Amino acid sequence: MIFITAGIFYAGYSGTNYLLQSKLVNTSTEADTKADTKLAEAGSGQSEANDWLVVAREHRPEKGDHFADLIIPKLQAKMPVVEGTHEDELEKGVGHYAESVLPGEPDNTVLSGHRDTVFRKVGQLKPGDRLLVQTNYGKFEYIITRTWITTPDDRTVIVPHKKPVLTLTTCYPFTYVGPAPERYIIQAEQMKRIE
């Protein structure tokens, strides 16, 4: 009888101990996995990137709002960026094509300006030159990768991109009197978020 009682006690103790240890191991593994995921996100900057993308979307400007500044170090120029590309907006500064993403977001941010006002000197820019866009959710650095001349109806200028790209458009030739027959395009890839 003593052996039976001792056997039941031992089996109960061992079973309980096994279940407790198993629970601790599983909990520890889940916690480790979550911690590893957070560390990986922090290491890749993914969590931070998602944070500012949310901020960018929350600060979507209304038509006519001055929401950013385009800074062109080579030209020593700082220009207001306004939501919209109609004449009213372009009189205020550089216009953000409303169908494009905000600066810093993955895809193609398209900015337009008049060749005889804000963009009168952009013909001096070359591949390798820097462009900066300062917003209330961050400052972004872009490097010009190419420039080209195209027709006004060329929609490839506004096509989506997988990476963050900044596209500047203006009428061309710069010295043309009257409505210009072509468009001058500057495209730049985002290098980093500075702030």
From TrEMBL:
Keywords: Hydrolase
Active-site feature positions: 114 (proton donor/acceptor), 171 (acyl-thioester intermediate)
UniProt xrefs under Gene3D superfamilies: Sortase
CDD domains, alphabetized: Sortase_D_1
Keyword Nucleotide-binding appears in the UniProt entry: no
Molecular-function GO terms, alphabetical: hydrolase activity
InterPro entries, sorted: Sortase, Sortase_D, Sortase_D_1, Sortase_dom-sf
SUPFAM superfamilies hit by this protein: Sortase
A UniProt-annotated Pfam family: Sortase
Official protein name in the record: Class D sortase
Organism: Thermoactinomyces mirandus
